[in-house]
Design goal:
CATH superfamily: START domain
Structural class: alpha+beta
Radius of gyration: 16 Å
Number of helices: 3
Strand content: 35-45%
Distance between the termini: 56 Å
CATH topology: Alpha-D-Glucose-1,6-Bisphosphate, Chain A, domain 4
CATH architecture: 2-Layer Sandwich
Shape: globular
Helix content: 25-40%
Largest sheet: 7 strands, antiparallel
Length: 153
C-alpha cells in the first residue's frame, strides 16, 4: 500500500528571488566563505559576532549576530547538499541553548547566471506557522540588501 505524500502548505514556505550584479561563483562564495559571510550576514543594523562554517555535506555552520544595544541571536545548521556555484542546501535553526530541534527548517538556495547577473532563488521551509515565516521574511530581505552591497561593491 502506497502512502500519500503530505502536501506542504504554501503559507509555511518562504520563497524569495533576488537578482545580483555579480557572478554565481562570487555569490556562492559569499555564502560559503567565513570572512565573506561574516561581512554581510544578518539584517541591517546587526553585526556578526561569531561565524564558523564547515562547508561540506554533513558539516555544521553556526553564526551569532547582535545589535549595539545587546540584542543577540544565534543560528546554526548542517549542510545537506553543495554544488559549487550552483546550489546550497542546509538546515536552519535557533542556535541558542533553548533551541527546539523540531523547528528545523531547510534552506535551498540556487544560483543561475542571467547575462551579467545572477538570479538567486531562496526557499526556506517548513515553518510551524505563518507568523514564523513572515518574521524570517523581514530578516532575510534586509540581509539580502546587505549581501547585495557586499558582492556588488
Amino acid at each position: 500500500m502506497k502512502m500519500k505524500q503530505k502536501n506542504i502548505s504554501k503559507d509555511r514556505v518562504l520563497e524569495m528571488t533576488e537578482v545580483f550584479n555579480t557572478t554565481p561563483e562570487r555569490l556562492f562564495k559569499a555564502w560559503t566563505n567565513e570572512k565573506d559571510f561574516a561581512a554581510w550576514y544578518g539584517p541591517e543594523g546587526f553585526e556578526v559576532t561569531y561565524c564558523k562554517l564547515d562547508v561540506r555535506v554533513g558539516g555544521h555552520w553556526r553564526a551569532g549576530i547582535s545589535t549595539g544595544d545587546g540584542e543577540e541571536y544565534w543560528m546554526e545548521g548542517k549542510y545537506i547538499e553543495i554544488i559549487e556555484g550552483e546550489k546550497l542546501v542546509f538546515t536552519f535553526n535557533d542556535g541558542s541553548e533553548n533551541k527546539n530541534p523540531d523547528l528545523d527548517t531547510i534552506v535551498i538556495i540556487t544560483f543561475s547566471k542571467s547575462g551579467n547577473q545572477t538570479i538567486m532563488n531562496f526557499n526556506q521551509s517548513v515553518f510551524p506557522a505563518v507568523r514564523d515565516r513572515d518574521s524570517h521574511y523581514g530578516g532575510w530581505a534586509s540581509a539580502f540588501e546587505c549581501l547585495r552591497e557586499h558582492v556588488e561593491n
